[in-house]
């Protein structure tokens, strides 16, 4: 299960992108409002430059040698004639400043109020009267000045007419841009989230059942490859540590078997009727069983039982071999040990034969230990189910969730086991995909362990 605590990277990214978009839109609005007057001046100068260029191209010399202006646009010619108080042009000799041609001869015309000795470039008229632009050009071999003027009234009228449309266009463009930023942010976060979920699924597929599995770094985006590589390296270190511990447990258990066997043989030479001899034999048997279980645990954890043998165990053959081995122990303790079969003994189970034998042995040993003198243990094979029942006191419901924990014993004073047998059973069942259930046996009155295996075939 994935923890949902902590901050959300998705929300942080979305907040960052949206804040960035809002900041950019705000900056654009402030800059536009601040530079609006400058834009107006630049627009006026650009318009005057265009008018001066058009005028220069429209000037020609008639048959009498006089300058005339022939405009291609009637609107442009009409404007100079009708709006002579607000716009106008003038052509003057560069040397003498003699006026050769002007848009209007009316005394009130704008162009008549402009001094003749203005400098090249843009000049602001006094009292906010407008702007005049002087350029220099050649006409019929003569160098002349071309002056184009426009009053502020024309500029204000144009700005008043164009500004609402410009602001509306700016608003639409800003809104569209912000919407694009929002959609882009959601798309980017969705892509990042999708890749992270894919990486999460890959990591979730790595577990005890596949200790050698790693994340395919080359299949991930470059941005996630360092994280995946670091995770793989961490898994390598963990696997190496676990393998070292497993080998240590296996080697230690293996080395202890021979000394324990020697001790047990020497104890047989002592008088069996003494209390010291009985206690020593009990302790030695306990240590021998713990060592045997440690070896079983090392085999299960190494996955050797699954890889070295085919997963097609014969349940009847495994049960008979284990019960034959445990029969002397059961007889010595006065416990009746029996095997029941439903007639499907030839059915194969999807588990290796050695693993099934270890599982049956641990369950049967626990059942024998749980019974007192005169008790009964029944091992049943039913299609694809194995059950081991005993006539002991049973397992309390509160303890059934912990009995598969390593080294856990319900009665800490008991010396019949080290708390490893059922944990070995749980690991073998899990690796085989089997289901383990613990309950009460209605016939014997004790505990019943039932394991359901997947079938391997006929």
Textual characterization of the structure:
The chain is an alpha+beta fold. It has three domains: 10-158, 2-Layer Sandwich (Beta-Lactamase), CATH 3.30.450; 206-302, Helix Hairpins; 310-457, Heat Shock Protein 90 (2-Layer Sandwich), CATH 3.30.565.10. Helices cover 51% and strands 17% of the residues. The protein has helices spanning 9-58, 74-82, 152-204, 225-267, 275-301, 304-307, 315-332, 353-370, 421-431; strands at 59-61, 67-69, 87-93, 99-102, 121-124, 130-139, 142-151, 336-341, 348-349, 376-382, 385-390, 435-440, 447-452, 455-457. The strands form four sheets. A five-stranded antiparallel sheet has the order 4-3-7-6-5. It has a five-stranded mixed sheet with strand order 8-10-11-13-12.
Short précis:
The protein is α+β, with helices and mostly antiparallel strands.
Distance between the termini: 38 Å
What is the topology, as strand order, of the major beta sheet? Answer: 4-3-7-6-5
Oligomer: single chain
Strand-residue fraction? 15-25%
Structural key phrases:
Beta-Lactamase, Helix Hairpins, Heat Shock Protein 90, five-stranded antiparallel β-sheet, five-stranded mixed β-sheet, 17% strand
Detail the topology: elements first, then pairings.
Elements: H1 9-58, E1 59-61, E2 67-69, H2 74-82, E3 87-93, E4 99-102, E5 121-124, E6 130-139, E7 142-151, H3 152-204, H4 225-267, H5 275-301, H6 304-307, H7 315-332, E8 336-341, E9 348-349, H8 353-370, E10 376-382, E11 385-390, H9 421-431, E12 435-440, E13 447-452, E14 455-457
Parallel strand pairs: 8-10
Antiparallel strand pairs: 1-2, 3-4, 3-7, 5-6, 6-7, 9-14, 10-11, 11-13, 12-13
Helix pairs in contact: 1-3, 4-5, 5-9, 7-8, 8-9
